[in-house]
Amino acid sequence: MGVAGNIRGVRLRRGLALSVAGLTAVPALVLATGGSAQAASCTASTGPYQKQVEKYLKRPVDGRQSAADCKAIRSFQSTYGVTPTIGYAGTVTWRTMKTLTAQKAAGKNPNKDKKCPTNKGRIACVDLTRQLSWIQDGSKLKFGPVPVRTGRNGYETRTGSKKIYWRHINHVSSIYHVSMPYSQFFDGGQAFHAVGVKMWNPPGSHGCVNMRTADAKSYWNLLRNGDDVHVYGRKPGT
Hints:
The protein is of the alpha+beta class and 238 residues long. The chain has two domains: 19-101, no CATH class; 115-232, Beta Barrel (L,D-transpeptidase catalytic domain-like). The chain is built from five helices and eleven strands. The protein has helices spanning 3-23, 50-56, 67-80, 91-106, 213-222, and strands spanning 29-31, 40-43, 122-127, 132-137, 140-147, 160-163, 166-172, 179-187, 190-194, 209-211, 228-232. Strands 5-4-3-11-6 form a five-stranded mixed β-sheet, with helices on one face. The protein has a four-stranded mixed β-sheet with strand order 7-8-9-10. Strands 1-2 form a two-stranded antiparallel sheet. This is L,D-transpeptidase catalytic domain.
């Protein structure tokens, strides 16, 4: 074999090694059966939160991934917009489950710990830790609580006391060029507004408080320029 042949052989072996290394960096996948290469449908890997996820989903808690476990996890991920939807019991899936548990526990008394001021009249409260928002008048709950989707790591929704200063019902972002219906800005470019993704879809917004369309519309009808907004807590994963 000549020099050129040797070089090609080295490149081929190097490329094969890199391909194998890349495969080991992701959970093992069970491919859809019947035929040639098809899209991966379910992971065979046991996730770091396997037992916790199994318990949450009322599956047998044995800490081992099974086809039935994967199907149940994938169903949960699909319902709540958790990606990738491959049935892996990873950090994002378990974090979503804990957030849902906290949101459910809030019930109709989200300000039980009095972390959102009750001496300002009409105010929109945003709890980053539980990914919840609501509107109260003094200590009286007026709307919510509803799930929200706040800033991702590096684009966190800023905490503190603020006021709504600009409202634009059909706003389009000049930075990201996306529609932001029912926008109500309260801190720089950060606003309440509707989005077309689920509230638990990772990794989060670029700082805005994303809402389901019906909730964003209710906020639009209940709030006005000058109304108070209070943001507190810390979003899991940021």
